[in-house]
Amino acid sequence: MDSLTHIALGACIGELYAGKSLGKKALLIGAAAQSLPDIDFVASFWLSPANDLLAHRGFTHSILFIVLTAYPLALILSRWRWVPRMSVRAWTGFISIQLLVHIFLDAFNAYGTAWFEPFSHYRVSFHTLFVADPLFSISLGVAAFLLVLCPSGHSGRKKWARNAIIISVLYLAYGLTNKLLVRTPIENNFAAQQINYKRYFTTPTPGNVWLWNIVAETDDGFYIGYRSVFDSQTTIPFQFFSRNEELLSPIADHEDVQHLKRFSEGYYVASEYDGQLVFNDLRFGQMLGWENPTAPFVFYYYLNHPEDNELLIQRGRFARWNKASAISFIRRIKGV
């Protein structure tokens, strides 16, 4: 999830776990602990863009990292005079819960989270929440704001933190329910349109859990479509994209290509974009693909000029958006 959500969630958990012992310092320490796995961003200062993709949500988002980190941090905090005294055991539980919640929540995004590094490169991804979903985060943000403003002894503090977390959990459950609801019509369409897929996934479009992006892999490429939970139309229009593996053949052994294939979990196509050879990761969707089925993909990596890849996902996530496209997006969510 986005950094602000982790900060707000960490503050709420901090209040519930240690607000009585630490006062408002529980908010700050909770926010910091919740954000700790994202320290992997420093790797971007010396790694190439392709290597950085694998480093992000890599080892610092693993179970082993939590095992190695929680107790040493607890020892430090238990001896730090700035914070009220709390046992090493209590601190270990505090840090462990924050880190576990962080890596668990990140696994609901499309990026994938490396829970099992360094023993396995497999990345866990439930494809249930967009990386920034206002409806998931707003209750946490409001509660964190109230916790900062109101005095430590206020009777409503734990209730605000608890209710904010409950609301977010219920929203996550609602997203999972919607994901299951679109599954049957999607698979019925695969059968009706004789799409012999090997595997497929659904992932939410930006900032909502109603309109879902569908990506189905076949031997030659991928079928991509969209399904809203409010759709009354039975047929799902699919657009086919060839994998174009032959475009990558001359550079198949290049380190960047190998890293990108691993990062994409095999959901990729090669293409030409702005006159350059491009690697597209399909898990992050298209630029307004619900408007234009042949739209370019959000994640595209310039293979000819790797130095031009500093922004990657961020540069395409909201490219081509304007007032008209936002209105059409809302209309598509409402269903066809």
Features:
2 domains, globular, alpha+beta, 3-stranded antiparallel beta sheet, single chain, 4-stranded antiparallel beta sheet, 336 residues
Brief account:
The protein is of the alpha+beta class.
Q: Kindly report the average pLDDT value.
A: 93
Rg over C-alpha atoms, rounded to the nearest angstrom: 22 Å
Distance between the termini: 30 Å
Strand content: 5-15%
Uncertain spans, ≥5 residues at pLDDT below 50?
none
Number of helices: 11
What does this structure look like?
- This protein is α+β, with helices and mostly antiparallel strands.
- The protein has two domains: 3-174, no CATH class; 193-334, no CATH class.
- It is 46% helix and 14% strand.
- The chain is built from eleven helices and seven strands.
- The protein has helices spanning 3-22, 25-35, 49-55, 63-78, 88-106, 134-149, 157-192, 245-248, 255-264, 313-317, 323-334; strands spanning 199-204, 211-217, 221-228, 239-242, 268-273, 276-286, 297-302.
- The strands form two sheets. Strands 1-2-3-4 form a four-stranded antiparallel sheet. Strands 5-6-7 form a three-stranded antiparallel sheet.
- A hairpin with a 2-residue loop joins strand 5 (268-273) and strand 6.
- It is globular.
- It starts with a helix and ends with a helix.
- The relative contact order is 0.11.
